[in-house]
Amino acid sequence: MDQNHVLEAFRLEAREFTKAVSGLSETEWDRPTRCEPWSVRELLGHVRVVIAWLPQMLDSPAPDSAEVTAVGYYRPDDRFSPQTNAARVDLARNHAAECANGATLADDFAATWQRVDRLCRDQAENRVVRTRHGDAMLLSEFLITRVVEVAVHGLDVADALGREPWLTTEAGLLVRQLLLGPGQLDAARELGWDEPTFLRKATGRAALDATESARVERLGIQWLTLG
């Protein structure tokens, strides 16, 4: 997928996320999320951490060729082991704890994604990076996974705060395309779900009732499991 297109989706979604958490009270920052054991502040700490990997990746030597796509990035291996998940939880909590308050965390998140946006704009379309898991990926493919982080966890934060989701059209469509693949997009439209509902259902954040399960099966829809 075109790198500029993916970067634009990342930029727009991260900008809306920043707007949404600006001005939260400390009580709101401490609300629990569905991503246990994280609070709102710790979940934003996680999103900031996974975006902050990029500058170091761009500073490192580029692999000769890409070997893994965004779909392959989510294959079930050690990256989703209990030990890795525990480390992921601790990293997010530690970063959130380093910020004096929620406003400082929100500012740090904004500064981090804006820096990543600037750095990525200067990269060649065929730039290859190596992830912390060892995957050699096109930068555009890795950026898709960062859009997933910002978009899906944005839904988690919106739900924790009791707000309407701010999911952008660009990010919602990009994540839908990743989860379904191009061959299933038309069938999925027959479900009649808006983008937030689709992402909640496809990622297990909202359960399918019996009628929905039957329609998904009838339409032959299968979506990617994120971890």
TrEMBL record:
Q: Glycoprotein as a keyword? A: no
Any one Pfam family here would be MDMPI_N
Top-level taxonomic group: Bacteria
Please give the Gene3D superfamilies that the UniProt record associates with this protein.
Answer: dinb family like domain
Q: Give yes or no: UniProt keyword Isomerase.
A: yes
Which part of the chain is the Mycothiol-dependent maleylpyruvate isomerase metal-binding domain?
10-158
The entry lists its GO molecular-function terms as: isomerase activity
- Keywords on record: Isomerase
Q: Which NCBIfam families match?
A: maleylpyruvate isomerase family mycothiol-dependent enzyme (TIGR03083)
This chain belongs to the protein called Maleylpyruvate isomerase N-terminal domain-containing protein
